[in-house]
Design a protein that fits this description.
Layout lengths: L1 E5 L8 E3 L4 E5 L6 E2 L10 E6 L2 E6 L6 E3 L2 E3 L1 E3 L5 E4 L2 E7 L45 H27 L1
Parallel strand pairs: 3-4
Antiparallel strand pairs: 1-2, 1-11, 3-5, 5-6, 6-9, 7-8, 7-10, 10-11
Length: about 170
């Protein structure tokens, strides 16, 4: 039987058996494994069973899913590999691996598929994420007209002053 063992503080020592052909993990109560981690997405990732093998799939989560501290979108799991979901870490254990022996070397046959898309979409304006709210909109046309008017008045005052000196 394959299972995950919680390693980080919030899930330390908890055992999650992978009984289903598809085991979902995330913050939402509808998942098979629910983790209360603010850095995890509601539907973060899932582990599928393909024959006797297990494959980790990221579900386009905001912060991504890491296997042995490398971000992946899909990767085959091997015995004793570390899965990171948000700030929660789990160790994958397989009592009955397909090839009949447990592999303890993390890098053996690990297929890492890098996510080429950025983890988060950059906002067009940071006013939506500012703790101070949106910046007031300024009308550049009005300010340009005021500056032009002040310049004309200053020029007129200078001309008047020079004409008074020459008299």
């Amino acid at each position: 039987m394959a299972f995950l063992i919680g390693m980080s503080e919030s899930v330390r020592g908890q055992r999650y058996e992978l009984k289903n052909d598809r085991t979902t993990i995330g913050r939402s109560a509808g998942n098979d494994i629910v983790i209360s981690d603010g850095a995890a997405s509601a539907q973060h990732c899932y582990i599928s069973r393909r024959g006797g093998r297990f494959v980790l799939h990221d579900m386009n989560s905001t912060n991504g899913t890491c296997l042995n501290f490398e971000r992946v979108t899909e990767a085959e799991l091997k015995h004793k590999q570390v899965i990171q979901i948000g700030s929660s870490e789990f160790m994958f254990n397989d009592d009955n691996p397909v090839n009949g022996k447990s592999e303890t070397n993390y890098s053996i046959n690990t297929k890492v598929v890098e996510d080429v898309a950025p983890p988060v979409i950059n906002p067009k304006s940071f006013s939506s994420v500012s703790p101070f709210g949106a910046r007031p909109r300024e009308n550049k046309g009005v300010w340009m007209a005021v500056i032009a008017l002040v310049a004309i008045l200053a020029l007129a005052g200078l001309v008047f002053f020079i004409t008074q000196l020459l008299k």
